[in-house]
Amino acid sequence: MKSVVSRISLLLAALQLTGTLGAAPVQGRTINPQSDSRRTHSLTQGQILQAQTEIPVVPTHLFALDRDNLSVAVPLIEQTWEKDFEGYFGANFSNDSMTVQKIGDTLSQIATQTGKKPALIYMVPRPQQLELILITPDGEPIHKRVVAANRDELLRQAQEMTRFLINPVFRDTNQYRAPAQQLYQWMIAPLEADLQAQKIDTLIFCVGGGLRTLPLAALHDGKQFLVEKYSFSRIPAFKLINKVYTDLRKSPVLAMGASEFKDQNPLPAVPIELSTITTSLGQGKSFLNQEFTLTNLQSQQASQPYQIIHLATHAAFQPGEPKNSYIQFWDKKLTLDQMGQFPWNKTPLELLVLSACETAIGDKQAELGFAGLAVQARAKSAIASLWQVSDAGTLGLMTQLYQELKTAPIKAEALRQAQIAMLKGQVRWEGGQLHTPTETVPLPSELVMMGHEDFSSPYYWAAFTMVGSPW
Length: 471
Known about the structure:
single chain, 3 domains, signal, CHAT_dom, CHAT domain-containing protein
């Protein structure tokens, strides 16, 4: 005991003399650096250095959280996670600083412009607990600590939920429900009263490693899915998103894709997907197979800058370097590292949609690639799938998404409404046709032969995720 007390005293001395956040208190406890200042000044530099080597050191943003100093912790979290993405992409994204006040002011401005009230939630997994920080347009930031959600158990539940959703053996079961409810109790429930009190309807999730590819839409409170209660997006860092609101309700779309591939499975619903999207919006162009090239994409953007680009093709976020991840065009692959240099648009691209993605869920590098997609593509927002959903299921969600984009005030709300239509059975496939609340679409013969498919399972709709700005 005497040894422990001595170590703590030495640490306090180090904090008092250096004034730095570099040395940390014992995990989960807060130490007052003002205690016994007379003893502090009697310590030698050697004793201070010894204390710093013997007491575990934690990153500065975690130390600030231990002291509940959110005005310090939030900018440090932003910097720390920005460095994670910069290291992965080999780029310098932003030199801007981000404060709690700036975030609150931006959220307030967006609420005024859109009529939707957003809030930002940081989720910081730690070995012994989960840290939650809520920033809203009104009031002070809120900090909750969930001790039961230690990192190992949190990630185990996340992996189990995702496994049950993806595995075809469990597709028609509710096996995912237990981990989905546990995760909701840890990640959302501690903040629920504050969200309701402030009438928040849009969530922006900025989460740490291991949670960046979690299918958040399928989190469940015991009665409802998260997507039934909030629209939301996930971001790499608030400082990295475009904070200007643009109304997309009358925007044309450039829709491109392929139904045939040399070395990958065909996507027979893509021709109908492209024609349905452009017909639904009443404006835009579509290009299929041989016309689906990088050269043509660049040419079309040069002649008429589109704010929405829809790519119906295989895409993958793989382990390892960004060059391992790609979007498949007719003639070649556009790798993730090349995406940052590709001239998508002279003006900011509002929305990039990838309708047939697959992600190596649980892999750190693949997580960074998926979560950083919008930043790397220089798009304000991106919609992509965490796993490859059936061709018919993708057609159903995309058809409804573009119907919702015509009326929804923000993009995340359009995606939410499309997902709700799927889970409630309003988008269904029967009698050789795709039925939605507003239209009936004939299916290609390859899909008609497969019979009926029920889209209410979260396997079909929870994979689709908005990355970047929800507005």
